[in-house]
Amino acid sequence: MMDGFLNVLKPPGLSSGAVVAMVKRVTGEKAGHAGTLDPEACGILPVMVGRATRLFDFMVEKRKTYLAEIAFGCATDTQDAQGKVIEKGTNYPSAAELQAVLPRFTGDILQTPPMYSALKMGGETLYKLALKGKTAEIPARPIHVDSIDFLGETPRHGMLIRVVCGRGTYIRADRGLYPGNGCDH
Fold it and tell me: Which structural domains are found in the chain, ordered by start?
């Protein structure tokens, strides 16, 4: 019998649920994850195994840290690198301009979750609705962002940031920030 936590380095291309399914197959135990990473995201996914799954409520309230590249210059229909480019532009902010606006995204703020998310409305997952070309009225919800640190510039108009936040925060895109889109990368 196995009880405890596994810190799994989730590669791009796998959902958090697929990682948990693999852990269940390998261990033969019940398992669950403490937060969802987008399928294209790479990062440490805490997986609780066996009796440790009882600690979900404790784990999910913990702070999370994300590293993200904001790639300015285009927007996609999914607000991530996997989507179809729907708009391009050449008005790129400087590092100083980005650093000046980052404080507006910290503290207790309201955020509208993206359509391409695992949230459910009316019993259906939002991303499944979006794939059918449907939209839903998604209410903004309160989140808390402890800090956003500017880490540096990346090639082709990108900026690297570190975000420390609480549960329910979407790092993919918010108010015109388009992390990681593949427009000119």
Answer: 4-60 (no CATH), 64-165 (3.30.2350.10)
